[in-house]
């Protein structure tokens, strides 16, 4: 009888073990195992808040045939894309969930986006085992060099792509998913004298307001079906930061008071649902109340009815990149409203993020002890630090941090061909330069080169731009508003705004800060706090006054909010 019980327990354990996929984390050891066992690696890249990730987990990865086939023929890796920006940015065109098959040499074999039903998945698995050759030839971007110095034709083509990408009638892009991308909105503000683009701004803002949760506030990720009605209900911190910027800019540039109301509802939402005791904000809130079950009816309910049923799960990770983005957005919120509570939130984020510095001086993604440091986190921190410096020229801590960070990015991520690799550390994959990150860091380095008067950074930005305009990348461009912005910024120095604060006359610094384009430098303070070369501008002024300058020109003195807005709109 005892022997029978032991046998039964063994069989029960074996049965339950066979009904579970043997997931592991991605590491250099994963690829050594793949070489030894002659197997393909399956990377299941998911998100905690993602509806279709839950469905695939419940339907496909719970299927017994799938489990047995995977355990027999593949090395299975699961990763949270939010926790791994080095993977998220690399495979973002295929998610979420993203299903990536990688061979032992780190070469992508097959990449698939979204939910895959069990039968289709099994067919795909068997096809890969039968023929594990890559579907597409991969490019090693670390070796791409562009010797063509003339990017005019590409930029001209991208300008046409940019216009064609916009849905003038409905807003957003000419595609099934409806949302606003920040660089596109930034570029549209510069081009809004174009009637169609001005219409697009209006229509896009109207659409974005439909993404707002009318009960709790906050912005849903996007809508599908080519309209703004078919909502995907997850709420990501980075999405809240993006739309906070967009609504506030629209309020200032177009005097749309309801945009300010939507911005305030975003902050109410993140404070109410995503605030973390560590002074930062949590990563996201789930799209589903019950994971895997569509929640459209739930989000139609009022506050009391929703809370009776429960609250969708919140991912309590506090990631550096998204919190830095929220810090910048809240700084703009402070200047628009002039309410100190928003500045207090900014300071809380700033101080908490300084604690994320590793021994290397680079910023960790979260609290985890990880040997990977992503470029994405360093970019977000650099951008936040730039905004802090523009806000307060006496912030010596932010200035020192930015100086150190730019140097560390240059020393740790810059490759010989002028590109920046996406991460530092060893997870078994070759760290490739990614298009979006390289555009962002080139914009930051170009700005920093002028701010610090270290032209080495400007030269690096120009070399990165050469890579970005190479044929290897250009063939896959869609509209690339951020690259168009970079191309324009590389033509010359950033605009300088020099504001003398005497404490007399009109106070309009808050308007300047809330409307500033990225490619600008700001000097605000008493006359002794301004750079010495600027002080001579203000010898005879005894009230608040602003000059908009380049190295060879300064505007007439500006004394009021109305005059400032007129000046800022000259380039629009």
TrEMBL record:
SUPFAM superfamilies the UniProt entry points to? Six-hairpin glycosidases (SSF48208), Thioredoxin-like (SSF52833)
Q: Which residues form the signal peptide?
A: 1-20
What Pfam families has UniProt attached to this entry? Thioredox_DsbH (PF03190)
InterPro entries cross-referenced by the UniProt entry: 6-hairpin_glycosidase_sf, Ssp411, Ssp411-like_TRX, Thioredoxin-like_sf, Thioredoxin_domain
- Quick check: keyword Membrane in the entry? no
Keywords noted in UniProt = Signal
Q: Which domain of life is it from?
A: Bacteria
Q: Which residues form the Thioredoxin domain?
A: 7-130
* Residue ranges of coiled coil: none
Q: What is the recorded name of this protein?
A: DUF255 domain-containing protein
Q: What is the lineage of its organism?
A: Bacteria, Pseudomonadati, Bacteroidota, Flavobacteriia, Flavobacteriales
């Amino acid at each position: 009888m005892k022997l029978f019980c032991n046998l039964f327990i063994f069989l029960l354990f074996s049965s339950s073990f066979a009904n579970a996929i043997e997931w592991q984390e991605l590491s250099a050891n994963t690829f050594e195992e793949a070489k030894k066992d002659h197997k393909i690696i399956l990377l299941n890249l998911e998100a905690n808040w993602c509806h279709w990730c839950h469905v695939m987990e419940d339907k496909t990865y719970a299927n017994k045939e799938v489990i047995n086939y995977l355990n027999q023929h593949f090395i299975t890796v699961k990763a949270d894309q939010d926790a791994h920006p080095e993977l998220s940015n690399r495979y973002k065109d295929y998610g979420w969930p993203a299903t990536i098959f990688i061979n032992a040499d780190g070469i992508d074999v097959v990449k698939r986006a979204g939910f895959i039903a069990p039968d289709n998945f099994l067919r795909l698995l068997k096809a890969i085992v039968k023929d594990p050759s890559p579907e597409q030839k991969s490019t090693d971007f670390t070796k791409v060099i562009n010797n063509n110095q003339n990017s005019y034709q590409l930029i001209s083509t991208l300008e046409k792509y940019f216009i064609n990408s916009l849905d003038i009638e409905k807003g957003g892009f000419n595609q099934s998913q409806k949302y606003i991308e920040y660089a596109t909105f930034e570029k549209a503000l510069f081009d809004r004298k174009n009637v169609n683009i001005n219409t697009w701004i209006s229509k896009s803002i109207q659409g974005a307001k439909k993404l707002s949760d009318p009960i709790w506030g906050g912005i849903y990720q996007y809508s599908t079906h080519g309209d703004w009605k078919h909502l995907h209900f997850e709420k990501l911190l980075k999405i809240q930061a993006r739309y906070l910027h967009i609504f506030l800019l629209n309020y200032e540039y177009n005097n749309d008071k309801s945009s300010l109301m939507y911005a305030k509802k975003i902050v109410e939402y993140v404070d109410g649902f995503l605030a973390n005791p560590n002074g930062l904000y949590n990563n996201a809130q789930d799209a589903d109340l019950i994971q895997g079950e569509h929640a459209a009816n739930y989000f139609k309910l009022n506050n009391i009815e929703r809370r009776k049923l429960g609250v969708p799960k919140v991912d309590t990770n506090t990631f550096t990149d998204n919190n830095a983005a929220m810090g910048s957005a809240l700084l703009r919120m402070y200047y628009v409203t002039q309410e100190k509570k928003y500045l207090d939130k900014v300071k809380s984020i700033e101080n908490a993020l300084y604690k994320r510095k590793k021994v290397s001086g680079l910023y960790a993604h979260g609290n985890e002890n990880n040997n990977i440091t992503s470029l994405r986190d360093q970019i977000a921190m650099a951008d936040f630090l730039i905004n802090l410096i523009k806000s307060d020229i006496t912030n010596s801590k932010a200035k020192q941090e930015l100086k150190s960070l730019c140097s560390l990015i240059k020393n740790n991520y810059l490759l010989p061909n002028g590109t920046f690799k996406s991460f530092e550390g060893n997870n078994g994959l070759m760290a490739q330069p990614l298009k979006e990150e390289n555009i962002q860091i080139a914009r930051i380095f170009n700005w920093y080169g002028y701010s610090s008067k270290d032209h080495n950074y400007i030269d690096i930005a120009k070399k990165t731009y050469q890579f970005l305009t190479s044929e290897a990348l250009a063939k896959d461009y869609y509209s690339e508003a951020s690259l168009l912005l970079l191309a324009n910024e590389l033509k010359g120095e950033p605009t300088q705004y020099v504001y003398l604060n005497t404490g007399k006359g009109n106070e309009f610094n808050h308007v300047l800060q809330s409307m500033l384009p990225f490619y600008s430098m700001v000097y605000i303070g008493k006359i002794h706090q301004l750079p010495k070369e600027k002080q001579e501008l203000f010898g005879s002024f005894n009230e608040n006054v602003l000059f908009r300058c380049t190295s060879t020109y300064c505007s007439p003195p500006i004394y009021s909010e109305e005059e400032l807005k007129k000046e800022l709109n000259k380039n629009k």
